[in-house]
Amino acid sequence: MRQSPAAHAGSAARSLTARGRPPGDRGGLPRLRQRREDRGRKITEHALAGIPQYWIINFDPEPRIQILRLTDDLGRYGTPQVFSGDDTVKIENPFPASFPSSDLQDFT
Question: Cβ atoms within 10 A of the Cβ of 46, count?
Answer without folding.
Answer: 17
